[in-house]
Amino acid sequence: MPGTFNSWLLATRPRTLPACVGPVLVGNALAYANESFSWLPMSVTLICALMLQVSVNLANDYFDFVNGVDTHDRLGPVRVTQSGLLPPVAVRNGMIIALALASSSGLYLVWLGGWPLLVAGLLAVLTILAYSGGPLPLASNALGDVAVFVFYGPVAVAGTYYVQSGTVEPLAFALSIAVSLPIVAVLVVNNLRDIPTDARAGKITSAVRLGAAGTRRAFAALIAIPFLIVLAIPLLLGDAPRLLWLALIVAPGGWSLVTRLYQTTGAELNPVLAHTAAYSLLFCVLVSAGVLIG
Questions:
Q1: Could you give the count of Cα atoms lying within 13 Å of 151 in the half-sphere of its Cβ?
Q2: For residues 82 and 16, what is the distance between their CA atoms, to the nearest angstrom?
Q3: What distance in Å separates the CA atoms of residue 13 and residue 78, rounded to the nearest whole number?
C-alpha cells in the first residue's frame, strides 16, 4: 500500500477495530434496556475505545520492531515499521497522539463516572504501553490473553454500563465474560500463526507454551463457552431476557471457524483472524439485540 495515508491506514489495522466496538454496544444496550441511556456518553465511549484500539495497534507495531520480534520472516499482515513504510519515530508519535485523543475523550467519561473510570483509564494506558513494550512485555510473557479478556470484557462492558447508569449489576459482568471470549479468540489465531517466529524471537505467548494442538483446542473452547454462558444467564438470573439466546444464531459460523482453524496453518490463518474479529462483533450485536428486544 504505497502512500502515506494508506500506510497509516494499514498501521491502524482496521480489521481489528470491531473487537473494541462490540463490548461497548453490549454495555450500552443493557443501559438502554434499563432506561439509563444517553447518546452522548455512548458516542464518546466509542471514540475512546477506538482510539485505545488504534493506540495498541501502533504500540505493537513500534515495540515489536524495536524489540526484534518483527523480522523479515513475519507471517502476519504487514507491519509498517518493520516493512519500512513508516519510520519508527513516526509510528511512536502516532501512538502518543492516539493515546492523547483517547485520554481527551476519556476525561468526559471520568467526569461522568468519577474515580473508578479514572483508575480504569490509567490502567488501560499502562497496559497498552506494557503489552509489547517495557522490560516485561505482557505479550511476551503469556499474559496478552489475560489483558484482552479483562479490558475487552469486564472493563469494556461493565465500564460502559457504569458510565451510563452509575451502577454495576451482575448481568453486565456475566455478559462481559461471554462477549470477551470470542475477542480473545482473535488473539489466539494471531498467536497460533506466529508460533514459529515468536519462539525464535523469544516471545513466549500462551500459544508457544500450549503448542499448536493445545492452541487449537483453546480456540474451540473460546468459541463454544460463550454459547453455554448465554444459555445459562436467563436460567440463573431471573431478570435476564431469554432472547439472549439469539446469539445462538451464529453457532454454525463459530463451528466453521473452528473447522478452518484446524485445517489452516501459517499465513493462511490471516483471513481466519479477520473473520474471527467480524464474528466477535456479530456475536456482540446479537447479544445486544437480545437485551434490547427482551
A1: 25
A2: 19
A3: 9
Compute CA distances 36 → 27, 107, 164, 277, whole Å: 11, 20, 6, 29
Task: Output the DSSP codes for 180-238.
Answer: HHHHHHHHHHHHHHTHHHHHHHT-B-HHHHHHHHHHHHHHHHHHHHHHHHHHHHHHHST
Find all residues with CB under 8 Å of 116, minimum gap 6, and list them. 162
Could you tell me the CA-to-CA distances from 213 to 96, 202, 218, 261, 265 in Å, in that order?
38, 20, 9, 11, 12
Beta-bridge mates of residue 141: 204
Residue 3 pLDDT level (bands cut at 50, 70, 90) = low
Measured from the Cβ of residue 40, the count of other Cβ atoms closer than 10 Å reads 9
Tell me the one-letter amino acid at 279: Y
Site of grid cell 468526559:
108
* 95 residue type, one letter: M
* 131-164 per-position pLDDT tens digit: 988 888 898 888 999 999 999 999 999 999 999 9
Sketch the domain layout of the chain as residue ranges. 4-293
pLDDT tens for each residue of 164-189: 999 888 889 999 999 999 999 999 99
CA distance 87 to 249: 45
Q: Say how far apart CA 153 and CA 57 lie, in whole Å.
A: 18
The structure's pTM equals 0.91
Residue 167 phi/psi, 5° resolution? Answer: -135, 170
Contact between 176 and 156 under an 8 Å Cβ cutoff? The reply is: yes
